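Reply to thread "Modeling small-molecule complexes from scratch"

Following up on the discussion above, here's a worked example others can learn from. I took a protein sequence and the SMILES for adenosine-5'-triphosphate and predicted the complex. Inputs first:
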Amino acid sequence: MADEFILRMANITKTFPGVVALDDVKLDVRAGTVHALMGENGAGKSTLMKVLIGMYQKDSGTVTLEGREVEVHDTKGGLNLGISMIHQELSPVPEMTVAENIYLGREPLNRFKLVDKALMRRMAQELFDEWNIPLNPGMQMKALTVASMQLVEIAKAISYDAKVIIMDEPTSAITEREVDLLFAMIRRLRDRGTAIIYISHKMDEIFQIADEVTIFRDGQWVLTQSTAEMTQQSLITAMVGRELTQMFPKEHAEIGEVLLEVKNLNRGRLVKDVSFTLRRGEILGLAGLVGAGRTEVLETIFGVHRAESGEILVDGKPVQIKQPKDAINAGMALLTEDRRATGIMGVLSVRDNMLAAALRRYSPGGFVDAKRLEEAAEEQRKALAIKTPSLDQLIKNLSGGNQQKVLVSRWLLTLPDILMIDEPTRGIDVGAKSEIHRLISTMAKEGKAILMVSSEMPEILGMSDRVLVMHEGEVTGEVPRAEATQDKIMQLATGTEAAA
Amino acid sequence: MSTTTNAPAEAPSSTAARFNLGAFAKKYLIVLILIGLVILLTILTDGAFIKTQNLINVIRQVSAIGIIAAGMVFVIITLGIDLSVGSIVAMSAVVGASLAQTADAAVIKFPGLDVPVIVAVLAGLAVGAGAGFVNGFLITKFKIAPFIATLGMMTAGRGAAYIFSNGRPISTLKDGYNWIGQGSLLGVPVPILLFAIVVLIASVMLNRTRFGRYTYAIGGNEQAARVSGINIDRVKLGIYVFIGTLAGLAGLVLSARIGSGNPTLGTGLELDVIAATVIGGTSFAGGIGTIWGSVVGALIIGSINNGLDLLNVSPFWQQVVKGLIIVVAIIIDERKNR
Amino acid sequence: MSTTTNAPAEAPSSTAARFNLGAFAKKYLIVLILIGLVILLTILTDGAFIKTQNLINVIRQVSAIGIIAAGMVFVIITLGIDLSVGSIVAMSAVVGASLAQTADAAVIKFPGLDVPVIVAVLAGLAVGAGAGFVNGFLITKFKIAPFIATLGMMTAGRGAAYIFSNGRPISTLKDGYNWIGQGSLLGVPVPILLFAIVVLIASVMLNRTRFGRYTYAIGGNEQAARVSGINIDRVKLGIYVFIGTLAGLAGLVLSARIGSGNPTLGTGLELDVIAATVIGGTSFAGGIGTIWGSVVGALIIGSINNGLDLLNVSPFWQQVVKGLIIVVAIIIDERKNR
Amino acid sequence: SSTDGGGSDTSSSDSTGGSGGGDVTIGATFPILDQFLQTVADAMQSKADELGVTLNVVAADEQTDTQLGQVENFIAQGVDAILVIPVDTDAAGPMTQAAQDAGVPLVYVNRKPSDLPAGVPYVGSDSLYAGTVEMQALAEMAGGEGNVVILIGDPANEAAVQRTQGCKDVVDENPGMTVTKEQAGNWYREEGQNIMENWIQSGDDIKVVCANNDEMALGAINAIKAAGISLGADGILVGGVDATSDALASMEAGELSVTVFQDAAGQGAGGVDAAMTLIGGGIVDDYVDIPYQLVTPDNMADFQ
Ligand SMILES: Nc1ncnc2c1ncn2[C@@H]1O[C@H](COP(=O)(O)OP(=O)(O)OP(=O)(O)O)[C@@H](O)[C@H]1O
Ligand SMILES: Nc1ncnc2c1ncn2[C@@H]1O[C@H](COP(=O)(O)OP(=O)(O)OP(=O)(O)O)[C@@H](O)[C@H]1O
Ligand SMILES: [Mg+2]
Ligand SMILES: [Mg+2]
């Protein structure tokens, strides 16, 4: 029987200073199957994969590939063994072209041992043609949208002709259409005999694409089972170790007067004449395909970018917002989309990260009140159940979900009236996700106004009182909760239906 | 909720970390390095190094480096660098001295002018603050890399100091002015006193004020800091004005110490200041650094300079040894992060 | 499928960029700045600046800066810096010269030794490569910040050059050696020829070899480079050996040019080299830089130095003007990114 | 002041700062060790060796405050006397003061502090004189006619200022001569060469190069030769200061017209002698002149 497993990892242990990331875990993957690896944030999924490709060195355990025990010392070794990986964190080289990014580390050479750029471009074009990837190999990486960059990463992983392809949350930055494209690729690869290890926090994807599931909890192996034998509920229970009763715990909130009004906002090609209102107690969902300009709208309102024209009224009064500080003073908060680029301050402590935006409140006369600050941070840690050994811990050592919670608390501490959240649960496990949803719901109940961008349809449908849909920088429609369906929203998002 | 079970389980580890000897030793490794160096030099010099007067000399001699390093910590935390501090020292020194000349000086810069010493001091500080402001302005408004903006100031500022003083030292200064560099208060030499005061102020600023916390936030992630409502430009401008003012103070101390405003003062000082700061644990990757660390770094540099002189190491070999010790200190200190 | 609409939409913009005059002007703005400077200096000097012989002088005088700047581009692209190049120049110069002394020199470093000039040249290059290797080793194996590792080498290397030469110039060199700095080939001065060859090689390396692509990748996104299986340490080590070798070559050129291996050679050179590189568009943010840009940067620096001499600007004012021009050139060039 | 307990070996580290024994330690601080000052240091060393005293040499990187620190360190260390070649002749006061307060004999060498109390001797030469005799000889060779350019050392350095002043004074005495250009070459041969190359292109009809030191003069000679202009009376006359071995070789080859010999050995030895006298309780003249000597092709054999 052992032979049918192309990859066997056994008794793998990996520790970081103060953290046992993997505790004697195993993973057996069959050729020609899609094997899902599931678990809460910080369960150790990415760590195991990094051990497999040679980015991390395991403390103990064995890796057997096609029946042979192997040792991988660096990523080059992993690639040489036929293991490639789509990393959880996008890592483009912005100044290089798409083709150069794909063939980085194995550029084709001409007979003078010089890099053959023309050939490289042709190879990339052939790759794109073969897999129906709608990209131009000559474009500079920095000119691409996030979704296109993710496609490049996918194309790159495939281009190695690997026996095992690891996909660590490949769909966290793309929407339905790219997901469909990706799944088509995965099926073709699987049919060719490639083994895919698929990591995701999105339940529906698992049941769509995976043959088998392995679940980790707190660095330990819990179970491996065929997806056919599982239900969504049993999967969640296995992951979080308890029953999770309600996926979208939206409570009823009293919808009050208009708090935020945006009139004819314009900025570049991604914000075109955007107008809408937002009321107290309301959760306004902002839907659209990736690249529709939702992030741009939020960032423009918040003063991250200067608006070219338009008016913003808070409580009926016009406000001038030139920089984020002005927005914060007007009672707004913005939980940004890209946690790494605009969220966490990696080498700073959890405490410092929490208090970055609200420091003014805790520093009368410019001097910080350490005691009050400590109390506030501790309160947030308890309230949001943030998993960290101490408030002194560097945030970069926290799992993604817990980093996100720290960022949420950063904004809660500013006591905002208007909370704008951009993909609030991206890359977050089901448990933490429902906690964040509960939090959003509570805040709405407290009379705050919430503007939520999400690319996850269930989240939009489950949480919003009203859904605003964008397409190419324009608002193409507005759907009340009662009428909101996936089809309706997709039509508006793809621009196939005129504005409602 | 599953997550709540974790909190109590992990709370003790947080307390434990506070009293963890290994962690303590790691954090203060650089202090151990300094102590090791002191012991080594004491043995090698048959005890001459550890004599009180010699130790006072060491501290007095690094006070200028230490004063500026306290500002360099802020600069490097925000991923900046200031190469111009040596030239700012020179500008402040010649301006300060020119306003503090006695009437019987051979060459008088401003004949007939007789202002209180405090005016000379304020002028020197203002020159420093002004130069720092120009640096900060170029960096924040024109988005020039700090290395280049301050390289320009380093070159132009040195030239300005030469022009102002016509290349000649400005000498014969009032006693009140010289006191800043040569006097004592309650038995403590004034430069050491000023060094201590600057360290104290800078520590409070960095750790206990909003300005300091913003400094760390910017170094941790400038984009995130901006979104968090921090006015990046203003904080950075403040930082360069601060280090400029400190360099101005150092210029006053140095010129008062030698009793003459010399336009060559501070040549190459920036490298010692940066070395002291980095030896003290401030990271070029941003977001990390402490004032006390830079004090330790300055003392290490001062001990090396003093010890090598005491040991009669030839000047050429001194350079080699100094280069090696700086690198070795950093290597040892870096390894604590492994 | 709806997705296919993206490809055509994005393709034309890439093609259009190639023939966009505005984009062209932006990209080559720094060349326009150089041309502007040349015109200005020609007018101010009544045409003396533009004379062929003077232009040859300008290029010959910056050839050492330019040769090293070609390596500095690689270093800065990978977010590094090399402060030690000036000291490497001195080490290479004294070693090279010591092996090329004629038998009738007044003070002979190695009496009785008579080796072919090529040995002296190789020794000088080897000294440079070796020093570069030490820099690279400290940076990659001990993870020391490049600023500090090369600061250590700058200090220690200068001391080593003094020790080797006992603080005195090593003079009376063989004609074959002096030819490197003073000779011509087909009417072109050898330093300029070497400069051109280095630029050519460095350009091909940076643009057409894997080594060059990896250099960009490391600077653009080190994480991406690592997961692509690139051996980052090896590339960085290679880069520091490369710039060290170039600094060694520059040391040979400079010593041959003045006919003497002087341990003071190259003092402060690193700042000119870095300024040339950055004026030439290499970014301290990493991932961006070109060789031709650094050539233009070096020519700008050379033109300033030469022009100020021609105009007989006083030495003090020269520094002020030079500092200002560097900053202004960068400001103008940065604005193209707006 | 204490004395050390080690042997009389000059450079052994055990001879520093200890107590006991009967040996004498002298500390010497130099602004920097360039070619000339290295010769002074060597002369001090051989004199010290000869007398069996320990000499501790340090250099101050041209930093006034560093040098003051070194004097303080010497005092703390308990040396018997201190020799100082001051970085900044206007800023010697605090060093003099520190030594006097500690009762340690102090001797200035080579560069004369601007204000010097009685009992603190200066052993050295006069830089103004060096520039003057250099230019006088050049003016004579040029027949009192032509354009003069000056290569200045470090423009903030005392010797550079004085030598430059000497050059200018003599030019002013010759109605047929004018200083058309002056520039700082920072004592370096390379910079002297660059500047001269640029000047040649400026179209100026240069007759005389009055350089503050030989290194820059040799650089200028390289530039002149490369431009195909002849050296000497029928071309450009180049003068320097220091009479280094390279300079004498150049003079022998008929290139360098004039240099001025500064008696480095005499200054070094004189400094140590003065210090020993003071240690022994003797009295030294306030100014011990070690005169400059003009070197021309006629008398250069005496200096080789
Ligand atoms: N380089 C590191 N240094 C210290 N701790 C680390 C490091 N990398 C991971 N960890 C810790 O190891 C544990 C496992 O992290 P890992 O990234 O594997 O989780 P994950 O299952 O991929 O979570 P997510 O779903 O959030 O991506 C976490 O506690 C994390 O904080
Ligand atoms: N060409 C570009 N250059 C720089 N930044 C860009 C560029 N295109 C998009 N971005 C930024 O990248 C981020 C994500 O871009 P994306 O294409 O996902 O658009 P978006 O506005 O986030 O769309 P949505 O939020 O609807 O998914 C946004 O912050 C956007 O401002
Ligand atoms: Mg992960
Ligand atoms: Mg978005």
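What I'd highlight from this example: The pocket of magnesium ion (ligand 4) is lined by residues A 294-295, 337, 422 (CB under 6 Å). The first strand of chain B starts at residue 170 and ends at 171. Questions welcome below.
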